[in-house]
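[step 3/7] fold_predict: job queued, chain A
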Amino acid sequence: MKEIVVLSGKGGTGKTAVLASFAALAENSVLCDCDVDAPNLHLLLEPEVLETHDFYGLQVAHIDPEACNECGLCGAACRFDAIRDFQVDPFACEGCGLCTHVCPLEAISMRDRLAGHWYVSRTRFGLLTHARLRAAQENSGKLVMAVRKRAREIAAETGAYYILSDGPPGIGCPAISSLSGAQTALIVTEPSLSGIHDLERVLELCRHFRVRALVCMNKCDLSAENSQRIEEQCRRLAVEVVARIPFDPDVNRAIVEGRPVVETSDGAASREIRSLWEAVAAHPTP
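[step 4/7] structure written:
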């Protein structure tokens, strides 16, 4: 089984468009959307939800008004200022539980907090695990672990050869959780100054976790100078640039239609993505 995670240093680089095309091109794969904060892979795959599961993140404090004598010790001890007028603000509570220890009457308890849901869905390209974290909720890395764990279980049950994961942008906890245990990270970048800066950060993340990184330049013809800088940067770091996708209006048209571009076009971008998939699939497992 080969796990391929598609990442980017920031949003809007075309990462999900590439992954959706991989889903259309790959055979015998399980799909996984690790962007649990702002998922959008489902927009291109039109999944039919088969399973829905609750996800509980950090616990939240609860004050029993019948047992509370309003001594104020809990509010004074809370460093997050989450307790005011003997009420807990669930959005400010970090779930540390200190208030339960300082309360002399044991009037405070910690309760599970529903932070989102994760799903198993059927798409025309195979099964997809994905999730949605509620607004202002924490533990997105833990939720990513849940969807990846289920994707691996499905791959083992069905004998799938690939797990194709659409990773979140950035280098935070969800991205770290997406990389854990993967064999290959395909980093999609674009020839802009911010793209170059963010690429450096993602490459450093991959090096830290010893995951082999490959680079795909999207819209590479928009800036020859910055594309050359990315080429030089990758050469210096011994990272292979496996694709140079030109700007192609067919990509935007495919997104508007809600379909992977390899399904709707045989233009320049579609041909390059097909070559990219062949290159990534043929890469030996480290």
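[step 5/7] annotate
The radius of gyration is 22 Å.
The chain has eleven helices and 13 strands.
exit 0
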